[in-house]
From TrEMBL, chain A:
It comes from Lysinibacillus capsici. The keyword Transmembrane helix applies. Belongs to the cytochrome c oxidase subunit 3 family. This is Cytochrome c oxidase subunit 3. Its main location: membrane. PANTHER family: CYTOCHROME C OXIDASE SUBUNIT 3, CYTOCHROME C OXIDASE SUBUNIT III. It is an enzyme of class 1 (oxidoreductase). Keywords: Cell membrane, Membrane, Oxidoreductase, Transmembrane, Transmembrane helix. GO terms for molecular function: cytochrome-c oxidase activity; oxidoreductase activity. It is a multi-pass membrane protein. InterPro entries: Cyt_c/ubiquinol_Oxase_su3 (IPR024791), Cyt_c_oxidase-like_su3 (IPR000298), Cyt_c_oxidase_su3-like_sf (IPR035973), Cyt_c_oxidase_su3_a-hlx (IPR013833). It is found in: Cell membrane.
UniProtKB/TrEMBL annotation, chain B:
Pathway: Energy metabolism; oxidative phosphorylation. GO terms for molecular function: cytochrome-c oxidase activity; heme binding; metal ion binding; oxidoreductase activity. It catalyses: 4 Fe(II)-[cytochrome c] + O2 + 8 H(+)(in) = 4 Fe(III)-[cytochrome c] + 2 H2O + 4 H(+)(out). It is an enzyme of class 7 (translocase). It comes from Lysinibacillus capsici. Keywords: Cell membrane, Copper, Electron transport, Heme, Iron, Membrane, Metal-binding, Oxidoreductase, Respiratory chain, Translocase, Transmembrane, Transmembrane helix, Transport. InterPro entries: Cyt_c_oxase-like_su1_dom, Cyt_c_oxase-like_su1_sf, Cyt_C_Oxase_1, Cyt_c_Oxase_su1_BS, Cyt_c_oxidase_su1_bac. Cytochrome c oxidase is the component of the respiratory chain that catalyzes the reduction of oxygen to water. Subunits 1-3 form the functional core of the enzyme complex. CO I is the catalytic subunit of the enzyme. Electrons originating in cytochrome c are transferred via the copper A center of subunit 2 and heme A of subunit 1 to the bimetallic center formed by heme A3 and copper B. This is Cytochrome c oxidase subunit 1. Belongs to the heme-copper respiratory oxidase family.
Amino acid sequence: MDFNTKFTPHTWPDHPEQATMEGKNKVVGFWIFLACEVVLFASLFATYLALKNKGPAGMEFTTQGLFELPLAFAMTMLLLTSSLTSVYAIYHMRNFNFKGMQTWLAITLALGLGFLALEIYEFNHYVHLGFTFNQSAFATAFYSLVGTHGFHVTLGLVWIGTLMIRNAKRGLNLYNAPKFFVAALYWHFIDVVWVFIFTVVYLMGVIG
Amino acid sequence: MSSYTQKKGFGAAVWDYITTVDHKKLAVMYLLAGTLFFAIAGFEALLMRIQLMKPNNDFVSAGFFNELLTMHGTTMLFLAATPLLFAFMNMLVPLQIGARDVAFPFLNSLGFWLFFLGAVFLHLSFFMGGAPDAGWTSYASLSLYSPGHGIDFYVLGLQISGAGTLISGLNFIVTIITMRAPGMTFMRMPLFTWTALVSSALILFAFPPLTIGLLMMLFDRMFGGNFFDHTMGGNTVIWEHLFWIFGHPEVYILVLPAFGLFSEIIPAFSRKRLFGYSSMVFATILIGFLGFMVWAHHMFTVGLGPTANAIFAVATMAIAVPTGMKVFNWILTIWGGSIKVTTPMLYALGFIPSFVAGGVTGVMQASAPLDYQLHDSYFIVAHFHYVIVGGIVTALFGSAHFYWPIFFNRMLNETLGKITFWVFFIGFHLTFFLQHFLGLMGMPRRVFTYMEGQGWDQFNYISTIGALMMGVGVILMVINCLMSIKGKPAGRDPWGDGRTLEWSIPQPIPFYNFRQTPLVRGLDPWWIEKQEGNKEVTFAEPLGDIHMPNNSAIPFVISLGMFIAAFGALYNPDADKPWSIYVLIIGLAITFGAMIARSVKDDHGFHLHKEEILEIEEHLYGKGGNK
């Protein structure tokens, strides 16, 4: 199928992201890339667990004293909701509703930005308390794990934003449908990683 | 006359190679780059052997010896063996599965340039204040306190080239899953393609821990992080775990494709189908799986406790089972075959006993109590060189002879090839066999010299003679390769014993590989066609337009940006180099700019029309097409 064929909602395929060979490769390849990202985060989680609450003699910072669940809960809600809105965006993409897709992607971006703002606030707060990157092994491991996730969120925002701007005028076709699809996959992945961070870092930090 | 059949000038040819996304050209580039780094690392090994030739030698200084042993190991594994195997994977995998290119030709090119520029970056350390000197394992307790920028070169260079390797691995997996020709089921895939698939899967899961380990080392050395600093609560054993979670699978990443190459050579020259094909596939997957369960056998002496040591000891011994299956399958393939002892076959015959010897000493070390005795001795050096030289290098040399006609449409000289084999093979055993005994006598590895009168002198002397013989062998091999430039075109299936699809393509291979996609009717499709008296493979489609990817300079630009940024990152902690931050920003801007350019500009590829195909084929093979 040609990339530039003009479609109507009737001729638009059920799975536009896999209608071309390139699209199919992209989706398979992206799942495999996510497998590799899982290992990447697993290494960071393992390191964090090994270094949790470890620091120089007499360090006053512990997970119990530092983390506040309300803030982490607000961040979790923002990111979980953004995952839901990206599902809506892909639903509209499959129904050839470009406007609907762009709208929901814009909402996803807004929620993602909100999450990022809270994370920056959180890090800033800790630094002011004296819990800096160099303060202890615990601090280094914490900022590396959560920061790598935050970096992924930032990349996702730039990525989805670029896609929206690039395709604003031309609408959906079989060339860009796989791109939107894998960007949404990536966004879900970031969300899943956050669920683990919320559990392992914050919940187990405060309660466990 | 279409542009495809015109002769190109030198500049245009260079530009063509920089921008190419053709897997065959990238394979040639991997081959050249890998050979370059193989030669450099081999030369480093010779310098070390000359230093160790006699006791109390002062040929090189202690510090330089540390740099040599670090760079020899790092280069051989990351920058020589990996790209050389990638050369074969790039060239053969698409041809063996009947594809016109890999799944992501753009990423293929990106993978090469990241690897190559990362490797160049690492080697520039020799000229910019000293190479890394903490061993290829770069244990944190040693490397954190290494002065100068050597370790920073190691961290950044491996980070960049590792990203390239990861990208290429991902590409091979997708290619093998989605791009197989009609009829090419998984259980009809040539064994080399199978090993390429499993090895790529290992790359996918093994390289991220290395990436994270290197990132932590970077944070600790450059930004004052505390991952490995025990006074700040850090733990240096974390590096060892992450490194070996990567490092042990890395060995299988290299040796599995080598097994695959021999599994192509042995059936071809025994003129029998591979014995126990399904069990070979099963063994490959099992080795890949178990490869991730054994990393702590490198750390028996760390003190993880008897339970951990026992579990990892048993898991390590278990790997001998699938490996043994493979060895028996090769032997049973040869058994009763109509054997032709060509140069590739000679390498295969030399490989089996050498590799088994390396494997047996490996199982010895799996026994944790014995490992306390053998750890960090020359016995270890002898063991892993038997596996790597006896397994991987013989595979690379043998397959270079075997597949040279696929790469360059020329044959290598058989007589010179056999001489090369014997010189190299005898040199190899002379070098490393005696090192087992040196280890048992107590000689530690990584020492720059030793005292006389400990009974080590004579064995070390002989070992050095062997190393020089290996050097002569490599030079003979290179001479053979250079001589082939003047050779006659080899043509299609020049050995006469090709079994798989890559031999069915007329030479020189057109850039679209297959004019019509082949129909695969069983294992060893080309052999089946030849048995039935066919001169062509059966086609799955009529002659029609072919869709091909466009060339692109963006992969090179992305990699160049990373290369520039790495210098900025390297010098950033130095107070007297304030410009470094700008270098870092400019480099990253180039990389991200190129990435955005790639996303914004559509790349649809192009269609090659039927008439153009016929014109190209007439130009390549003369009137009457490829009959």
